[in-house]
Design brief:
alpha+beta, Lysozyme, two-stranded antiparallel sheet, single chain, disordered N terminus, endopeptidase fold (from Nostoc punctiforme), six-stranded antiparallel β-sheet, 14 helices
């Protein structure tokens, strides 16, 4: 497909998106507005009818590419990473330039060579390569290392493995200063101001000149999970649960060696914190204290019924992470889903809280 055709396709996508939004408004669907912080990545969409991947909303310019992103993620067998891929697009381009994923360089091309679908295809291909390399190096459960490598390059994984390290903000900053920056001419650790919500929260409002962005994981994940939300228990629980992000759904699975079904996942995660949940979704529903939707908070369990034919009522559950999102093991593997919309909204039952 030539460049002119790609421009036409992009414009048609935007027109269809706008027309669809107008139809919803005419049909009387109420759109609630969310007012939140706007970080480095720019102005965000405010409407609840748009999918919300985490603490900040993905922009409409990014969301129109969801189907295309899912197509390529499926092709490269990383569909559970779709929301992270969309978040990467948000950080890289906000959907406002043709090289949506800023992936030209990863294909050995000059900056901004690829356009639209080509950029998405290459971005997904590159992340799939990173994930495969992480598995080979026994870093497959280091989600931060995988995401940071999209910014630093795949060599970051090899450096971590060679030095017996795992990703952290401090390790990424060290790598930026001692490896990336010198390779591009900054041998003295020269740095410059880089001030936004993420860098301020991390207590390091600066970057090394020519050193990539060592805040990259936090920039991406603010669109995938609500950052800095919930109590200390939830933060620790979520950090542990995210070790298994992308693990495949396995019926009857209850530990990392077998992978997980929905209740096996919650039982395993909560068990690491001394909370012994029963085995099945129905048993966990019966075990916890029921709470009103208005009182639900991160770390609670959220339950669903009738998601498949069964003799019992409750057939699925997940860990509520706030912002209308849950972390669960569903048919797409361990990942994030919206509690109140689409398939899960149709089968929603309510929230429950386990005694801590």
């Amino acid at each position: 497909m030539n460049a002119e055709m790609l421009d036409v396709v992009s414009k048609l996508r935007i027109i269809v998106f706008i027309m669809t939004a107008k139809i919803f408004i005419i049909g009387g669907i109420l759109i609630f507005m969310i007012f939140g912080a706007i970080a480095l990545v720019g102005e965000q969409s405010d409407s609840h009818d748009l999918p919300n991947a985490g603490g900040l909303n993905l922009s409409s310019e990014v969301l129109i590419w969801e189907d295309e992103m899912r197509y390529w993620a499926r092709r490269y067998e990383i569909e559970s990473w779709v929301w992270i891929l969309l978040a990467i697009m948000q950080v890289e381009s906000r959907g406002l330039v043709p090289d949506l994923m800023q992936s030209s360089e990863s294909a050995g091309l000059p900056v901004n060579t690829l356009r639209y679908e080509e950029s998405i295809a290459q971005g997904v291909r590159y992340l799939a390569r990173i994930i495969d390399r992480a598995q080979i190096l026994n870093l497959g459960d280091d989600r931060g290392a995988i995401i940071q490598s999209y910014n630093f390059g795949i060599a970051y994984l090899d450096w971590l493995a060679r030095n017996g390290e795992r990703h952290s903000l401090q390790i990424a900053a060290y790598y930026s200063r001692t490896v990336v920056a010198p390779s591009l001419g900054n041998a003295i650790g020269e740095r410059y101001d880089y001030i936004n919500d993420v860098s301020m929260q991390n207590g390091m409002p600066w970057l090394y000149l020519n050193g990539g962005n060592f805040h990259y994981v936090y920039l991406v994940m603010q669109y995938v999970i609500p950052m800095h939300m919930g109590d200390e228990f939830f933060q620790e629980l979520l950090e542990y649960a995210l070790r298994y992000y992308g693990f495949p759904y396995v019926w009857g699975g209850s530990n990392p060696n077998t992978s997980f079904d929905c209740s096996g996942f919650t039982q395993w995660v909560f068990g690491r914190f001394g909370i012994d949940l029963p085995r099945t979704a129905q048993q966990q529903f019966d075990f916890v204290a029921r709470i009103p939707d208005s009182e639900a908070k991160p770390g609670d369990l959220v339950f669903f019924e009738g998601t498949y034919s069964a003799l019992y009522q409750i057939t699925h559950l997940g860990i509520y992470v706030g912002g209308g999102q849950m972390l669960d093991s569903s048919s797409r593997g361990v990942g994030f889903n919206n509690v109140h919309t689409g398939f899960w909204g149709d089968h929603f039952v309510g929230f429950g809280r386990a005694n801590r």
